[in-house]
Design brief:
The chain contains six helices and seven strands. The chain has about 200 residues and is of the alpha/beta class. A seven-stranded mixed sheet has the order 2-3-4-1-5-7-6, with helices on both faces. Strand 2 and strand 3 form a beta hairpin. Helix 1 packs across helix 5, helix 2 packs across helix 3 and helix 5 crosses helix 6. The longest helix is centred in the last third of the chain and has 21 residues. Belongs to the PTH family. It catalyses: an N-acyl-L-alpha-aminoacyl-tRNA + H2O = an N-acyl-L-amino acid + a tRNA + H(+). It is an enzyme of class 3 (hydrolase).
């Protein structure tokens, strides 16, 4: 896979609506918002039941502008993300090799970032929906660690609880770091970006 093929489709998972806007489960959507802010872009409604922004991200070797990237959030809830994501991918002509899904991950410590291609979904219903709709698991994921709930708190309550005002500055740093990783993937290729991230 080469970095200059395109476009890339980068999807941030989460739930629509103000009540979910600043929850751990919306980590993927919050990374998309950070990328939009960098690019000076605004998400607009698309007929695939998504909101999208068509931008260029990163810098290619030699200083040329990075490749075309479509940033997206689904208008559906997390557990039914697959339909809108697969519809948008078909509309854009994007295959699994140029799809990057950004999502929260309970199995990683809070603020840890990891890149992964293919494999299982770890019980993440948003990923399960996408895999089923695409008919493949062989797409790229950026996992944003949110950690496990404290004590005996229900994981569902934990992921849907709003981030505290005290914790939000640290999470904003994490979302910016995740945006850096996305730029690295689209500009330099998944393998190089993965090596760079995982060697830190």
């Amino acid at each position: 896979m080469t970095a200059d093929r395109g476009p890339w489709l980068v999807v941030g998972l989460g739930n629509p609506g103000a009540e979910y806007a600043h929850t751990r489960h919306n980590a993927g959507r919050l990374v998309i918002e950070a990328l939009c802010a960098r690019a000076g872009a605004r998400l607009t409604s698309h007929r695939s039941r998504t909101h999208t922004a068509d931008v260029r991200l990163g810098t290619l070797p030699g200083g040329a502008p990075g490749p075309r990237v479509v940033l997206a959030q689904s208008d559906s809830y997390m557990n039914t993300s697959g339909g809108p994501v697969s519809a948008l991918a078909r509309f854009l002509g994007v295959g699994a090799d140029h799809l990057l899904v950004v999502h929260d991950d309970l199995d990683l410590p809070a603020h840890d970032l990891r890149l992964k291609r293919g494999g299982g979904e770890g019980g993440h219903r948003g990923l399960l929906s996408i895999s089923q709709a695409l008919g493949t698991r062989d797409y790229h994921r950026l996992r944003v660690g949110i950690g496990r709930p404290p004590g005996r708190q229900d994981p569902a309550d934990f992921v849907l609880a709003p981030l505290s005002q005290r914790d939000r500055p640290d999470w904003e740093v994490t979302f910016e770091q995740a945006a850096d990783v996305v730029e690295d993937v689209v500009a330099h290729g998944f393998t190089q970006a993965q090596q760079t991230l995982h060697s830190r």
